[in-house]
Amino acid sequence: MLSASLLTLIAISCASLGLWRVGTDLDRAGEFVFLNGFLSHWQVWIGAAVGVQYASSRLTRYARIARGREVGIARAAEPSSVRAIANIESGIGAVPQITWRCTSHSGKKN
User: Fold this and answer.
1) Are 73 and 87 part of one and the same domain?
2) pLDDT score of 30
3) Is residue 97 located within the same domain as residue 69?
4) Which helix (H) or strand (E) holds 57?
5) What are the pLDDT digits (tens) for 18-72?
6) Which domain holds residue 108?
7) Is the pTM of this model over 0.70?
8) CA 42, CA 44: separation in Å to the nearest integer?
9) Counting beta carbons within 10 angstroms of the beta carbon of residue 59, is it exposed (0 to 12), middle (13 to 18) or buried (19 or more)?
10) Are residues 54 and 106 in the same domain?
11) What phi, psi does 99 have (nearest 5°)?
């Protein structure tokens, strides 16, 4: 998740450069760093900011899914306390019937 945080910072930097270039075009800001060429257009910087932020969000989502799987594997490896409860039902002149029910310590039925 650290790399996703760094990508967010890069996206903010690209967006600020894009806004600086827009300000330069509107004569509201000083001279832009790149006077001509591919990087002198505000659309490039804003587009890069959007793309990098999208990559950051996807990476964050992937990290959460991977972390959930690790937690699930770790929980499956832990021994859980399970108890069995036997209910014996019998009637007059009938054979007793035993019903088993397993519950974990959290109360969920297995």
Assistant:
1) no
2) 93
3) no
4) helix 42-77
5) 999 999 999 999 999 999 999 999 999 999 999 999 999 999 999 888 888 776 6
6) 81-110
7) no
8) 5
9) middle
10) no
11) -115, 125
